[in-house]
Each structure stands twice: as structure tokens, then as C-alpha cells.
Amino acid sequence: MFEQRDLSPALEAVRERHAPGALVLDTKGDFETLPPAVAENLGPLVEAFEPVDYDPVWVPESAPEQLHRLAGGEFTLGAPGDGGVAWTRQTRPPTVFVKPRLEGSPDEFVEFLVAEALVEAGTDLPEQFLGFFRERYPPLCETGLSPADSYQLANALYDAYVGLHTVEVFRAWGSEDPALTSLHDAWLDAGTRLEPRLEGLAGEVARGETSFAEAAELACSAVKHGIEPPTPFGALATETYREHGAAFALRWAEKTLDALA
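RESULT FIELD:
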């Protein structure tokens, strides 16, 4: 199920700087959430397991099943929305997973995704949005969106918050170390490819062509690339959001969705 991945010198440098000793593994199967029976196959590769503890009261009854599993007290890894690379600090050392869905993607892009995961794993931020919103997640689910859209919005809002903590790292790769130039270029390229998708996004939401949660996912992705998100998402690229976190995100969502109703 898991096989250690060979890392380029650039990724070795990022790992050493941000997540020393972290494992980077290729997975033989795609996954969103790994059940305990599969996750525990990591046993021979890691020193210890340190399962995260989410309070079940943070998860509304109508929430997607994956959230109930994460808050169910069992050792689970990953969640929908993690993409082709996921990471966890529930193992010691932290582990980064590279999924088969990335096969065929440009090598430079995959390198950036792994580097991004190593940087995030080296922060003290929660690894899932549930650990970020905590008791504020049920109120977020009462803003008028479906359970699935509430999940997608929460994941997007947390993605922006993480981006506020990592964007300067990515930006510095262009000047601080020649060995990291390729990663900086891949970060810039991913942002450039994202920009056309942001144009006219507010109009698409207004016309019902794109859901609010889908638009949030795109707009919040802009934050980690240092791109100004379109209206009404610009407030999520501010120092105020970085400072006030989940409380700010909830208030912003409530006011924005009320205005759009």
C-alpha cells in the first residue's frame, strides 16, 4: 500500500528545513479517507501513532459521513478535498502521501504539491478544517448551504487560512536558495494557470453558473499563490483573517451568504 518515494535535492532541502525526518510515501491506491485497518499498515514505517482527537459535537448530524468518521475516535487518515497529495501529523514522524491520481501530471507540479505538503506539515496548523473551525463548524453549516456545500466551503476557507501562513515561504523560494528555483517556478506557473478561472467568477455565482462553494474553492486557492481573490473573497487574503482565524471566517460566511440570499 505504501512505498517510500525518492526525493529530488530540492524536496530534500524543503523537508530538512520544514519537516525534518518526515516520510514521503507513494500510495498504491487512491483514497479520500483511509480506514484504520489500512492506515495501520503504516506501522512498520513509523515510530508511533498519535491520533487526532476531534469532538463529535463539532459535526452536525447532517454532515457527510467522512466527517463523522474523522470525529469517531478511530485512527483515520485523509479527507475529501485533500487532493493528490495529503499529509498527517498523526504519525511520528509526519507522513506525506502521494496518490496515483497524479500519474501523468507534470513532474514540476507534483514536486510543488509535495513541497507544499512538507511546508504545511511543518507548521502547527490543524491538518483538517474540522480542527480549525471546531465548535464553529455547526454554525457554518447553518448558513443556508447543503451539507456537501458547507463541507466544501469550510475546506476552502481553511485552505485560504493555511495559504496566509505559507505564501511567503513559496515566494521566498525564488530568491533564498538557487536549489529551490524550480519549486518557485512551479508555484508561479500554478498561480498563472489559476488566474483565468478567477476572471468573472463573481458573475458566474450571481448567474447561478457556479455554486458559491465551488467559487470559494477557486478563490481561496488563489491565496496560497499570492493572487488577490475576486469579490467577495478578497477579505480572505488579509492579515485580519490570519489574525482572527475561524471566528473571522464564520462571520464573513454568514454576512456574505446573507447578502447573496
